[in-house]
Design a protein that fits this description.
Largest sheet: 4 strands, antiparallel
Oligomer: single chain
Strand content: over 45%
Structural class: mainly beta
Shape: globular
Number of strands: 15
Number of helices: 0
Radius of gyration: 16 Å
Length: 181
Amino acid sequence: MSDVDEFEDDRAVNSAYYSPDGKFIISSCSECSTASAYDIGFVHLWDASTGAYIDKLTAHRGGACCANFSRTGSLIVTSGCDASARVWDATTLKLEGIFKGKSDQRHKGYVWDVDTSPDETLLLTASDDGFVNIWDIKTREILAHLPHKGPVNMARFSPIENKIIAGCDDGYAYLWPFSRS
């Protein structure tokens, strides 16, 4: 493999994903293990065919744990060491919403992973506080607060949207049924 392209970030790369059309790459970077609340986690956008740097989103205090595109590529979703997730317009790069939650259902630790439902109306967050939250993107309200036995490293909606999978530090992946009603 001598023809490897490199996309250099300024810190540890926590995630890197292609846009659904394959034209862009998005990466998140941080030093979550040593970051202070004053460090900023950035999300970088790259041209996938040329490797050219396009832009940077100032995403999360303490570090950006994950950045990904929604299924159609119209949204960028990010999660961070500041216990929040964010939704951005992928065309304008404008911040559309911050997802922190209220009272006892808000995440209390790093939000390691974030995903959107196939119809892009729901947001899924996985945190080291042991919870997966399902959010309504429009209202930013938590629809479900799912407890696990320990830190949750990843979570994804099923392509048919009636199940969620979550991977945890306890060595298990959990499959949750989910219904909007």
